[in-house]
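Sanity check record (used in CI):
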Amino acid sequence: MMRMRRYLVLAGTGLSLLSGCTSNPQESMPEFHGRNQQGVGEPGRLSRAEWTTYLSDQKYLHSIAKPDVRIRLNLADPAQHRFALSRLKLAGKTPENSPYLFKALEQRRQDQVARGYAPGLLPPEANSLVGTADKQEMHVIEEASTGETTAVANDGLGTATSTFPGGAIYTYVDTSYTDSSGNALGDLTWREEFDGGYNVTTNATGNLALTTLKRYRVSSYKVEESAAQGVTDSYIFTEMGIESGPVVNEAPRLGNLTVDAPLDVAFNDNLISVCLNRTWTQDCDYDLTGNLNSVKLPLKGSISVTSSHTFDDTAINQLKMDLNSGVARPDAGHLKLILTNTGGGCDVTDGNTLVGKMNQFWNRVTLSTDKKTFSWDLTGTNAAFFDDGCRQMQDSAKLTALISLPLVSAGTKYRSSITLSNDPAAVRPDYVFKKITVTNSCLAEGTQIALAEGKPAAIESLKAGDHVTNPYNPSLTIMDTAVGIETTPMVRIRDAAGRSLLMTEMHPIQAVARGMVQARDLRTGDLVMTRTGPSKLTEVTREAFTGKVYNVKVGSQAEKALLGEDQTAVYANGFLVGDGQIQKKYEAIAQQPKTGDMLARLPSRWHRDYQLSLQRK
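Expected output for Hint domain-containing protein:
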């Protein structure tokens, strides 16, 4: 029998996650990088006979797969193959309008037949999606709600999301809301992206009044091509509602949701600044500069049940026991940090394992005496730990948590959940985290900054309220300073006049022909601006640095009103460099979606699919 691998499981105003010296982000990034298309499935695309077969194939698939365990389909199995093609047909995708997609799936089927994959089994790779605690591909159910926190009756909602490290050539993701027998309670929704795949999210609604069953299902199918893995697919489903016991008419109701961390506590700028490698003196809500090998985020909150139900302490204690003893519990929910600008994500882990687990979360769960309030507290030394694979510069990172909630009432066990997320494409999270940004930029200690009175001063001696000079204004006020470390080799430049400057690779510097550029883009021979005018660089090298690094934000609101674009600059060792605000701007520009001819970026095999997608409405 083929081995089963566990599936590893971890929207909006702004959580600002600072791994560097940067200004407060004010702009939001687009939700996708490539050309995207989305739509609603139509049951009429399947004949009555095809629909009956689809339901039968779906039932069969769920008999060999498990809830909350992501799998890849065995297309050598006729039933699994038919199921995949039916999902695509419901979305309006056919061999005529998506020729390469269907050709690639047929090739995948033939490859699996050649490998001897037998019907009734899942491919070995399908059960190998546990991954590691490091950054990885993800395909997850982000929301699975029966409307426990809304005022609308029978208000089901399901959301699925996908991400791939470095992006994908092509991504298709759908979401379906049904009862546990597979009967549709709403339309299948789908989304595809060419040259994207960083953060693909779809939402499906369900009208619970369309079924007499009290158990419901959210499922999602994905097809993707990446340079790293070629064409793959994956499928995942989750179930909620009554798990055992007599059917009762009263549905659970949840309320009084509070989130105590993370919050904007330092600057009241509607952003939560979690400082990783550097700390702003004026705006750092959570200082994590002492932890160099991971991303740690505080999470604390509570939710109450307002119906006759109570939280099932027996089920919760069993969940804790299983997780702590290494027993797989895919129904434990997830807590994920997803890099929406570069793709991929990390699961919460305990920092001592190679595989992400939810025991860190569940070990910090408590119930009130009356079992009506469920609380979690991952703060201080117990803050949620994500591996250092996600310590990357991001203008927009997604923090998403699906918290599974076991409930019980009069002997009936019920599974519910809430979703906390800052995914802008998720339509109804129960709580919206603020925006997360991850940035890097600073100057080495000892760097001399030109002050307004004409004298230089070491950057580490500067403080808010001091004044610096630049070419556009003889005096700009320092509004904030940052200090920290840099783990990546820094950029050393020297010019023909003998000046030298050591800065982090993301720090902006004024180039004569190109305007502000990041230090990593400098080359020997470039002309840069200095206090004495343009000067040619004679050396651009990388250099490890173990000392402190610093940055500043300059210009009060009144002073900036008199300046032009990119003019909040300072002289550092004589070179004209941008401050944290300029650095933030160019980080955002570097992460903007690609522009230009899509066909020039796509492999030729996808050209026809892309061109035909432009004709679909």
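Residues 48-64 form the longest helix (17 residues). If this sentence no longer matches the regenerated tokens, the check is flagged for review.
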